[in-house]
């Protein structure tokens, strides 16, 4: 049996820091971020299924969210102002991410690849799942901005405003419900919860 380094590689998400151009009071790594996104995405899927009468596979949502930034082990976390600077850079970076994801997939034993491929390489048939994860990713980033602001760091004010606008433009009922019902606690101290 051929040995695989896939999971050892995945465990290195904890060494990839996010928000590279921002001064943070607490650094956040891709591993922490992925867990937050998975939990929020699961909540969004639950809201969709329980409150909005949709039928989204919450288990797939969680699995895919866990791996949604796995390519960054190879690419690093490219700051959003760079990643989205212009269409050419955005397209080139998507190609780099795809190549990195394929490299990760190829680290797995052949009989595992079909199981992990949908989590590493988005497919059109899973577009509702990926849109849910994208929404959760924005909420997670917004929460980071709130936490930094709560710590007296004004570095994240503009990012918070931009994320609020992006979330509003998504026009998603599940996001509105999450923000209405669950978001307030993120601004509270432990004693206030």
- Give the rounded overall mean pLDDT: 92
How large is the share of residues in beta strands? under 5%
Largest sheet: none
Q: Kindly state the number of beta strands.
A: 0
Shape: globular
Whole-angstrom Rg: 17 Å
Percent range for helical residues? 55-70%
How far the N terminus sits from the C terminus, by CA atoms, comes to: 51 Å
H-E string:
HHHHHHHHHH
Instruction: Name the poorly predicted regions.
Output: none
How many H/I helical runs?
Answer: 10
Based on secondary structure, the structural category is: mainly alpha
Provide an overview of this structure.
Helix content is 64%, strand content 0%. It has 10 helices and no strands. It has helices at residues 6-10, 30-51, 58-66, 72-75, 80-83, 87-107, 110-120, 127-150, 157-170, 173-182. The protein is globular. The chain starts with 5 loop residues before the first helix and ends in an 11-residue tail after the last helix.
Write the SSE topology.
Blueprint: H1 6-10, H2 30-51, H3 58-66, H4 72-75, H5 80-83, H6 87-107, H7 110-120, H8 127-150, H9 157-170, H10 173-182
